[in-house]
Each structure stands twice: as C-alpha cells, then as structure tokens.
Amino acid sequence: MTPSPSAVAERPSMRRVRPEPEKRTVDRRRPDGEVTGRVTLPPEIFGIEPNLAVMHQVVTAQLAAARSGTQSTRTRAEVAGGGSKPYRQKGTGRARQGSIRSPQFAGGGVALGPKPRSYHQRTPKKMIRLALCSALSDRAAEEKVALVDTWGFEAPRTKQAVAALEALGISGKVLVVLDTGDLDAAYSFRNLPGVHIISVAELNAYDVLRHDWVVFTDATLPGGPPEVEPLPAAPAAEEAPAAAEAFLAGAATSEEAAAAQPAAVADAGVETAEPPAAAAAEHWLADAPDTEYAAEQPGAEDEGGEDQ
After folding, report:
1. Cα 168 to Cα 186: distance, rounded to the nearest angstrom
2. Which stretches of the chain drop beneath a pLDDT of 70?
3. What is the C-alpha to C-alpha distance for residues 34 and 29, in angstroms, rounded to an integer?
C-alpha cells in the first residue's frame, strides 16, 4: 500500500542535524613564547562536530593504501618437483596421490595463499576533507592547536627548536606543519624524538589524530592567512590620593594623616577639622584633677610649702 503524501510529509527525517560550527580562538605567539595577538580559527575547519565514522573510514583507507602488497606464496604448480606419481594407484594400502608437491605434503605448494595485490580503497575527496576538518576540530576543542607567526631560524639549530617548544609550553607528540620552503625549520625539528614534520600540502587526518599537538605558522594555517586581533590594552593605573597613601603606609598619628591632604584644600582657605583624638586629649587634660599632673608641674612643691 502506497502511503499518502500527507503521511510522507509528517514522517520525521532520519538524517541527523549537526550543530552549527563553533568559533574558537588561539593565541598567536612568537617562538620565544610572547603573545602577539589572538586569531579566530575558521569555524568550518576547526569548529565542527567530529564525524567519527568518516574519520575511521578515511584512516582505514589511508593505512590500507600504505601497504606494499608484495606478499606472495607458491602454488603446487609453481613448486619445483613432483612431476611424477609417487607410487601406483592401487595395491599399496595408502591413499592415492598424484604428486609430492600437493598442499598436504611438506614442501608442497600452498593452497589459497596470498598473492601480490593492491589494497587501495577509493575515498571521495569530500570525505577526506571532512575527516581532516573533524580531526582538526577535535584538537582545537582540546586546546591542542598552537600558532606561531614564523619560526625565523637563520640556520638549522636543533637547540633553538627545543627552546621554542619549551617556550610555547608544548610537550608530548607534536606535529609541526611547515611550508615547503622553510628548510631551516625542517632541519631543526627533524632530529627531535616525538616531533614529526609535515608539509602543509600533505596534512591528513591520520597524522593529526596520532599526535597530541598540531603547530601551525601564519603561512600554513588552513583557511588562509589569519586576521590577528590585537591584545586589549592594560588599563592605566590611577594615582591614589595622598590621604589613602598615608593610611596604607601606616601613619602613626592622625596629625600625619591630616598633613597628607592635598595642598589644594589649604589654598582654597578651607579649615580642616581638628582630629578627634587631639581634641579628646586636650579636654581630658583640662578636666583632670590636680594630682600627679599638677605635681609634675614646675614650682608645685614650693607653692605647697609656703601655704603650710
């Protein structure tokens, strides 16, 4: 029975809708580790959801194509000897045999053995590109993508390559993507264990997945030369008021804090209130009984003696 057009229209689509690509950023650095700006990676390359099935198929095809396919075994027709019947057909009590080079004999041919063949698998170009973008997006999601403006090696120096990786904070298995003309950098990195150099034209999903870090330069970043966003300027430090500086410095008395007020207040003729501590001390001295304080005054004993 053929379904009605309305039923076909209401049937949910079995195709999965993938989310929109995410925008991811990465710091653009110099080989000494100094950050020169931020770069927004192309979302269609570094921001998609990885397609595991496509990556598996592409990697399997790549590993299969790398096989030489030169294995070979000899059949009973290719083994030397065995041209005559070993014994007569009947009367011996043994199984009938026609050649001693049959597969059941030691030294005989191999039945259904491997022969030279090609293991090449045809893979569409769109699948190869999708697998590469999926692998790069996976590394970008883990923040394992580094960007360098240029290596700038004047001569091949492995020591400088080691120092550059340490300054960038990169460790583990590293994939360094170089331009075809950057020979000094290629000679500097090729002797390092755990570092694999590859040309930008040979970048593939398998090499990206088998390394922890992927390091690009401005010339090798997929999607074209990056647009560098300058770093935000640091806010200017505001000068603290003189009174606050005196307070933070731990002024001993309130008189010192009052003396630290701006000179503009004094020039304007504004009277400064007397510190509460000084006013309280003067009031206490004025109302204090004539005891020890009076005794400490000069001439107190003489006046007392004359009254007696």
Report:
1. 18
2. 1-14, 234-308
3. 5
Token pair, residue 127, equals 């699948």
Tokens of 268: 């304007």
Pick from 113, 111, 134, 162: nearest CA to 59: 134
Say what the pLDDT of residue 121 is.
94
Spatial CB neighbours of 116, under 8 Å, sequence gap ≥ 6: 69, 70, 71, 72
236 near 54, Cβ under 8 Å?
A: no
* Contact status, residue 21 vs residue 138, Cβ threshold 8 Å: no
For residue 294, the one-letter residue type is A
Could you give the CA distance from residue 2 to residue 251 in angstroms, rounded to a whole number? 95
Question: What pLDDT score was predicted for residue 260?
Answer: 52
pTM score > 0.70 for this model?
Answer: no
Task: Look at the block and give the residue holding tokens 């590859």.
Answer: 198
R_g over Cα of the chain: 44
pLDDT of residue 305: 46
Q: Specify the DSSP element, H or E, that contains 28.
A: strand 25-29
Q: Which domains does the chain have, with CATH numbers?
A: 25-65+121-229 (3.40.1370.10), 241-287 (no CATH)
